[in-house]
Design brief:
By secondary structure, the chain is mostly helical. The chain contains seven helices and three strands. It has a three-stranded antiparallel beta sheet. The longest helix is centred in the C-terminal third of the chain and has 35 residues.
Length: about 190
């Protein structure tokens, strides 16, 4: 996937300025596709040069002359072409797993503090996701097709964080048992 496709998707949801797009990106697509604001601005320039989007200065822009971007027909066509292509499953590239492998062979690394930090981060992210779910997808509301798909994306994030929490707790327990003196048991 390229950043261009994520930006096209976001602009189709709502035409916006580069600044507003970058802020919205952080609060939506940014949860699963990270990009800096600088990367987004560079991508907007490339996409405009390719004829996928156009910019204009709204009448209410005032002295800022802030450009607003919208997707053109060529951009919609490119996004549809890309969306219909096969996607490879996510490749897991997790530095911490390599550190655990190192701990397994070294037997002298204490990764429990780092695991505890990861646990707190996963719990924070889960709380964020659950807050979004409660706010945007209440159980008593009938959701549009668009909202149902967005909810399912959010649910994947929720399940990921829940599983990460469960795995981290289990790993902490394993490390605590391995650190306990022989013959003793940990609660």
């Amino acid at each position: 996937m390229s950043l261009a496709h994520a930006v096209l998707t976001s602009l189709l949801e709502k035409p916006s300025s580069g600044y507003d797009l970058a802020r919205r990106f952080d609060k939506s697509i940014g949860y699963f596709w990270h990009a800096t604001h600088q990367q987004i601005y560079r991508e907007l320039a490339r996409m405009e040069a390719a004829g996928w989007i156009e910019s204009s200065i709204p009448a209410d822009a005032g002295k800022t002359r802030k450009k607003e971007y919208r997707v053109l027909a060529a951009g919609r066509k490119e996004l549809a072409r890309w969306a219909e292509q096969s996607s490879p499953p996510m490749d897991l590239r997790d530095e911490f797993m390599v550190k655990l492998r190192a701990d397994a062979v070294l037997s002298e690394v204490n990764l429990r503090p780092e695991l505890a930090r990861h646990l707190a981060l996963h719990r924070d992210k889960l709380a964020q996701y659950q807050t979004i779910e409660t706010r945007d997808f209440p159980a008593d509301r009938t959701l549009s097709r668009h909202a149902q798909i967005q909810h399912m994306i959010l649910k994947k994030g929720i399940l990921y964080e829940q599983n990460s929490i469960a795995w981290t707790l289990e790993m902490l327990d394993v490390l605590a048992q391995l650190a306990a003196p022989k013959g003793s048991s940990t609660p």
